[in-house]
Amino acid sequence: MMNRLGKHSEARVQPPLNTIPLAEAVADQPYTVSPMGYGLGCDNPKNLVQIQNLTVQYHGRIILKEVSIDIQEGCITALIGPSGCGKTTFLSCLNRLVDLIPGSAVRGKITIDGLDLRDPKIDLMALRRRVGMVFQRPNPFPLSVFRNLEMPLREHGVKDKKEIARRVEQALRDVGLWDEVKDQLGKSAMALSGGQQQRLCIARALILEPAILLMDEPCSALDPLSSAIVEDLIMSLRSRYTVLIVTHNLAQARRIANYVAFFWVRESAGTLVEFGHCQQIFEQPVHMLTGDYIRGRRG
Ligand SMILES: Nc1ncnc2c1ncn2[C@@H]1O[C@H](COP(=O)(O)OP(=O)(O)O)[C@@H](O)[C@H]1O
Ligand SMILES: [Mg+2]
Q1: Is position 299 within any domain?
Q2: What is the pTM for the complete model shown?
Q3: C-beta of 86 in contact with ligand 1 (< 6 A)
Q4: Tell me: the pLDDT tens digits for 134-187?
Q5: What is the tally of structural domains in the chain?
């Protein structure tokens, strides 16, 4: 096959899809962690989170099976894959929200900066301050804009009014909302637009100065314009925060991620198929299934 430069490209020859039963197609290649030799990395990659053989069950049913992955500090890692493959479950293990799901059982090891997350003595409040989360639907508290940001600070022991005002302003500036709301801090957060509400929720997560920000499809409930604003915001967080983002929007993953993890359901359990640099996953996926998914042939 000739590419635009007139050179032979190295497109992989694949048998027609409809001749390969899925089970066979995935069974002939082991699930691998691919080499990290391609694409743009972070400025100073440093392994911040280590996940080893993470398995999650709900009421005895395996939801996520033996996922091992390293997360690099200051980078954006996108989690992609079809609905039901355990992406939300994976995120919820990283701040132990999974513990709140009745019937959940977690095996494997997760460490953040050497701290064993499943240590029974761990301070969950401190953990959730270090690992913030933003959900699919903006979920501001039905309170004023100011109170939405003041509340988490007070819960975590910040009492000084000047300090609170300074950090509220800083968090709103960080998400580009300050100029839009500075004259209406007493206004109900519920009166903001969807995109503004989501940026407020991101500010609420950032105000506690977490090391890690988990984002579960943060743009999927937003209109395209708001989505673009939130996407720019996420990119601006790179290097200051370690971001894990679930997105169904592959073009978005491609635009913003340093690393991509592709999940798939195999024998009814979510599995990590491939992990690597963004450019490598999109341009030279190791696993055939990854290639099929990112080209829209499966999933
Ligand atoms: N609270 C729960 N109790 C039982 N099963 C659940 C619960 N939440 C999710 N599941 C199941 O776990 C699987 C993975 O779900 P989820 O992590 O939400 O996947 P994703 O985010 O990739 O769509 C799905 O089959 C889902 O039905
Ligand atoms: Mg989900």
Answers
A1: no
A2: 0.85
A3: yes
A4: 999 999 999 999 999 999 999 999 999 999 999 999 999 999 999 999 999 999
A5: 1
